[in-house]
């Protein structure tokens, strides 16, 4: 691949010029807001697991299958969507994805059996699969060269939505029942409006890029062989596995852990889950800018391995200690994802959609697989054993030592 070819990305990757900083910043804010709304919708499902478990007499294995149904659908579709949009960007697919999530949300509110619950979860997963790859591409397009910061801003919206979901479920869905989930259709409609506006801006950027005959993107890491690139991507995916498998223990089972071990109420458990997810959102904000300043590998290495002492201590802590430990765990663990994503984008220039689809999809898939396997483990050995075992997962982060250093793309 020659130097010019390595600079060439797919249409829509041309960095926003300085004069477009205002509109680009507004687009990035819109993407973050829509990510918040998208992930708020999808976080409602695990947030109401205790309600569904009681109403439908589900066991932990079935709870895990619900998570698997949502996340596996999203995992399988996201790389496909990313590959297709690398070849032909679809500006208004973002808004369409929100409508698919809306249909899953409404079905969830009226579901009367476990198979219908699975279908609703799959629809929400499909909407998420449509949203993430193209949204990640638009975030990079609006970054103005600060790719880590842009990914953090984009991803923190999702983390904030994931954190808000359990809190809203605790005070809306738990007191008023499953049908009150339909109230969150307003969030989906708001997301549709915002993403329609983002799609218009994106379509204009694509048209101007085509008129100039330009195809932009970062410089390819030419010093790395194809085999080394493949091996590096494999390491990054293993790190994603360790992160999201561990995260699955919280998103699906943390409330049950608190209920069983400390005897707290469902609403208290949801508030404590919000504390953890809020720290995840904060860690996401920090990870991107720190990676821009000090390099992606530094953040990846520190964020995954640095969390190990806290995860090892958590299964032995009191209620107060457990809640306090979840704060550094969420902060440190979450800082890795923006750095991993931008690192992979710099490793594979011109494949922003594929990278977004592959890594978000793999993350969701590992979360789903983790939820299913950990649910079976909880049924067989007890919920406390889940956290005793998962405490060692961050040790897999030692593989980060094999990641090569990649020079950041040239700006300007």
TrEMBL record:
Major facilitator superfamily (MFS) profile domain ranges (all copies): 27-409
Claim: Transmembrane helix is one of the keywords in the record: yes
Transmembrane segments: 57-77, 114-132, 153-174, 180-202, 229-249, 269-286, 298-317, 323-344, 351-374, 386-407
Keywords, alphabetical: Membrane, Transmembrane, Transmembrane helix
Top-rank taxon: Bacteria
Record-linked CDD domains: MFS_FsR
Protein name per UniProt: Fosmidomycin resistance protein
Species the sequence originates in: Methylobacterium isbiliense
Name of the encoding gene: fsr
